[in-house]
Amino acid sequence: MDSSLVYAGIAVAVILVLVIAAVAVRRRGGSGRPVESGPAPAGVVAAADLTELLEPTESPSPTAPQMGLLEVEVPDPAAGRLHRLRARLARSNNAIGHGLFALLSRDSIDAATWDEIEETLLLADLGVGPTNEIIERLRTTLKVEGGSRSPDDVREALRAALLSLVDPNLDRELITLAAGRPAVLMIVGVNGTGKTTTTGKLARLLVAEGRSVVLGAADTFRAAAADQLQTWGDRVGATVVRGPESGDPAAVAFDAVSAGVRSGADTVVIDTAGRLHTKAGLMDELDKVKRVIEKQSAVDEVLLVLDATTGQNGLVQARVFAESVNVTGIVLTKLDGTARGGIVIAVQRELGVPVKLVGLGEGPDDLAPFDPVEFVDALVAN
Ligand SMILES: Nc1nc2c(ncn2[C@@H]2O[C@H](COP(=O)(O)OP(=O)(O)OP(=O)(O)O)[C@@H](O)[C@H]2O)c(=O)[nH]1
Ligand SMILES: [Mg+2]
After folding, report:
1. Nearest CA to ligand 1 atom 26
2. Can you tell me the distance from the alpha carbon of 370 to that of 377, in angstroms, rounded to the nearest whole number?
3. CATH number of the domain at 183-371, out of 3.40.50.300, 3.20.20.70, 3.40.1160.10, 3.50.50.60?
4. Average pLDDT across the chain, whole number
5. Per-residue pLDDT averaged across 358-367, rounded?
6. Where does the SRP54-type proteins GTP-binding domain lie (predicted)?
7. Which of 88, 187, 215, 362 best tests ligand 1's pocket when mutated (most atoms within 8 Å of CB)?
8. Residue 343 class from Cβ within 10 Å (0-12 exposed, 13-18 middle, 19+ buried)?
9. 278 or 255, which is more confident
10. The domain over range 78-166 is classified in CATH as 2.60.40
């Protein structure tokens, strides 16, 4: 072979390798800046990069499942999600619906039956006050109707009594938009109630409505907590701001809100570490996280996540959290796994704060805005 041809081939190959290397170096130089609150673990989107990331699709649309190089999912719309509760309650042997209806439908409701009714309501976590109220109401309604109690009358009496206790007039609006800045939501509660899952599901709900969302991983106790949130964020293209393990949770929350402000995000949701309500130091820390955020932005919602299966214990937690931070709404999780729907009524009574969201399962879209009418209808459904 002609040696000049060989030299020419080698020269072309060398030029190609140099061009590829130059492109790779330029690409790397454009990203990977560290998160402000500390060195960035792998997979973190640095706060300063948010603007670039969000600019092309500032409001990720459900019809545009691509964002940058990430494949993002299209979450279910919020409307109609609470319908699933009916099926879930049917499976969980819902005490209020089935038990109470059977008792009230007996030919004669004697003193022993009223005792059973009371017991059923207490077992469903309704609490003593609301239980007495509902029994008074039912006694009056059903007495007036005398002997002509059809199953429909009973169901309607039960429905009306429950509905008045769940209180359809409470303002349950979840503030997720604010004028001229992102709305800021904090998610708080004891260990394992479903805070991180709720933060992730909430991001999906918001993305489904076309919002741009920043998540703050202010649970710095365990690296796995931030990874868990990162996974939720990645699935729907929500940016996750995180800090170093054991770092200051208030600093991460502050950075997440700054990042949201800079990128023009609609909503910033801050996931916090689980904490025992009995540990004063941890409750003070929560208050500090809130105060540090408030140096740059109002906190629009503090959502207390309660596990519906823990019953009356949840009420004790709720009281202490409400004393530490100004709780604006309750998220009642794991309602799919309990026959104790009465906790909705009890906790609202206890705090005077409405249930705004309910968790209905472990699926990514098993979080629904709470609607009192739909909830009661699901409880008393056939
Ligand atoms: N069945 C059911 N499971 C749920 C629901 N919400 C959360 N979970 C499950 O509860 C478990 C705990 O959820 P996490 O979101 O990690 O709880 P957490 O409050 O962040 O926990 P810590 O950060 O450790 O305090 C997980 O297995 C979730 O899948 C729900 O509505 N229904
Ligand atoms: Mg968590």
Report:
1. 194
2. 12
3. 3.40.50.300
4. 81
5. 92
6. 354-367
7. 362
8. buried
9. 255
10. no
Residue 340 has pLDDT above 70, yes or no: yes
Burial tier of 124 (Cβ tally within 10 Å: 0-12, 13-18, 19+): buried
Q: Is the CB of 195 under 6 A from ligand 1?
A: yes
CB-CB contact of 190 with 215 (8 Å): no
Is residue 81 in contact with ligand 1, taking CB distance under 6 Å?
no
Q: What tokens does 26 get?
A: 């330029």
What tokens appear for 305 in the block? 């996540």
Which token pair is 330? 């309750």
- SS3 per-residue string spanning 243-310: CCCCCCHHHHHHHHHHHHHHHCCCEEEEEECCCCCCCHHHHHHHHHHHHHHCCCCCCCEEEEEEEHHH
Q: Which amino acid is at 154?
A: V
- For residue range 96-153, list pLDDT tens digits in order: 777 888 888 888 888 999 999 999 888 888 889 999 999 999 988 887 655 667 888 8
For residue 131, give Cα distances in angstroms to 123, 134, 266, 377. 10, 5, 41, 19
Enumerate the domain spans of the chain: 78-166, 183-371
Is residue 287 within 8 A of residue 324, CB to CB? The reply is yes
